[in-house]
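Colleagues,

For the teaching module next term, I've prepared a clean inverse folding example: a structure given as tokens, and then the sequence designed for it. I'd like students to try predicting residues themselves before seeing the answer, so please don't circulate the second half yet.
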């Protein structure tokens, strides 16, 4: 048996008045996923365990069959793997965003302006990678030391590693505090003084930097501070082959997913034109997955677009992303595998990203398990959406059991 996971990040959501009380998933035209639900299994899985943040890192680890409560150590250690930064046992990795703060002069911590300082843009206007690399190089020169090192990543997402650092402090993701005063969200706990100091001093390094001067002249958001969060030590994740006896491949535009794949021992397949947004190369991803199934037993296709649209609060974009996911990813796969035995497909989101909230929630998500060669209409499901899935008796409280479920008895019985 060969396995395919088609994951629409953040695809689930909440009912919207503008859509007549439907969610974007229920409203979107999804003939392929509806067909799969009607000819396969439909259920719900709680991918985010109680007490953990509903991040894509936690939720995708669960979908891949790893109990986040046991294995999750933070986002940054997973991203470190994606850019090939090795972590020692005492190293703590931090996600280092380049952000735009407003009404800020953090050089004088006592002044009024440093108190009333806002998070204007968690991505510094989706700064380009070449611009960002110049800024991160300057940050590294000014703030780096034997214990503190900065590593350039992609666009606004970079990495800092603190040798022998603290990992128990609380840091807030910047994309959760857009438009809010940062004074209310500064890091707290053991080691927060070190992190706070680095973020504060970064403003001095970035203020008046040539890259920012050019951006401001073009009316773009300057990257005038770093924001550190998502910290953790190296996770101990047993390789997928060892855990499930299957060789695997990952198709995603997102560093986090490439990092998880690297740690699990998957092949990481890059698809030209994969952007992580609604203009991504959907068909290219599906075709690469079908091709990869010739070499490996298991392929994971991660599509970021619905989540980005959810974070942007853009209902039209989210509906479009879901319709394109259904037509160009799921549709391409269904066409190629029509009637062919020996394939089992899991379709699901990792977590909901409701347009009304612009952020993730921990609600259970609807999933489909479908076998092209073993269709079964006995359960009488009509469509793929949250409401229809809630009517199903199939529910996994421990969402990470979805992988075992897919591999062991996806096709037959209950
Ligand atoms: Zn996600």
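(Answer key — instructors only)
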């Amino acid at each position: 048996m060969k396995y395919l996971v088609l994951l629409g990040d953040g695809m689930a959501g909440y009912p919207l008045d503008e859509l007549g009380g439907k969610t974007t998933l229920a409203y979107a035209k999804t003939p392929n996923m509806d067909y799969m639900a009607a000819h396969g299994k439909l259920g719900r899985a709680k991918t985010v365990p109680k007490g953990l943040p509903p991040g894509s890192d936690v939720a995708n680890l669960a979908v891949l069959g790893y109990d986040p409560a046991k294995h999750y150590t933070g986002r940054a250690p997973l991203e470190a793997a994606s850019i090939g930064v090795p972590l020692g046992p005492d190293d703590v990795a931090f996600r280092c965003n380049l952000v735009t703060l407003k009404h800020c002069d953090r050089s004088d911590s006592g002044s009024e302006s440093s108190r009333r300082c806002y998070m204007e843009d968690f991505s510094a206007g989706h700064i380009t990678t070449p611009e960002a690399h110049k800024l991160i190089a300057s940050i590294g020169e000014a703030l780096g030391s034997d214990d503190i090192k900065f590593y350039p990543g992609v666009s606004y997402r970079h990495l800092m590693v603190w040798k022998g650092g603290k990992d128990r402090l609380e840091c807030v993701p910047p994309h959760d505090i857009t438009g809010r005063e940062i004074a209310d969200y500064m890091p707290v706990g053991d080691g927060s003084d070190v992190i706070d100091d680095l973020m504060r001093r970064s403003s001095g390094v970035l203020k008046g930097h040539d890259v920012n001067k050019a951006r401001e002249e073009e009316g773009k958001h300057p990257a005038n501070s770093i924001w550190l969060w998502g910290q953790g030590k190296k996770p101990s994740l047993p390789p997928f082959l060892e855990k499930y006896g299957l060789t695997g491949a990952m198709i995603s535009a997102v560093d986090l997913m490439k990092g998880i794949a690297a740690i699990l021992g998957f092949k990481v397949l890059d698809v030209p034109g994969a952007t992580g947004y609604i203009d991504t190369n959907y068909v290219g991803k599906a075709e690469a997955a079908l091709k990869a199934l010739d070499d490996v037993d298991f392929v994971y296709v991660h599509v970021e677009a619905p989540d980005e649209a959810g974070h942007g609060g853009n209902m039209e974009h989210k509906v479009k992303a879901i319709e394109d996911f259904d037509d160009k990813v799921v549709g391409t796969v269904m066409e190629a595998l029509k009637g062919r035995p020996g394939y089992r497909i899991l379709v699901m989101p990792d977590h909901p990203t409701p347009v009304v909230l612009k952020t993730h929630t921990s609600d259970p998500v609807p999933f489909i398990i479908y076998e092209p060669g073993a269709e079964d209409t006995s359960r009488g499901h009509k469509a793929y959406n949250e409401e229809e899935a809630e009517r199903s008796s199939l529910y996994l409280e421990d969402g990470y059991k979805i992988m075992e479920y897919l591999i062991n008895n996806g096709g037959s019985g209950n």
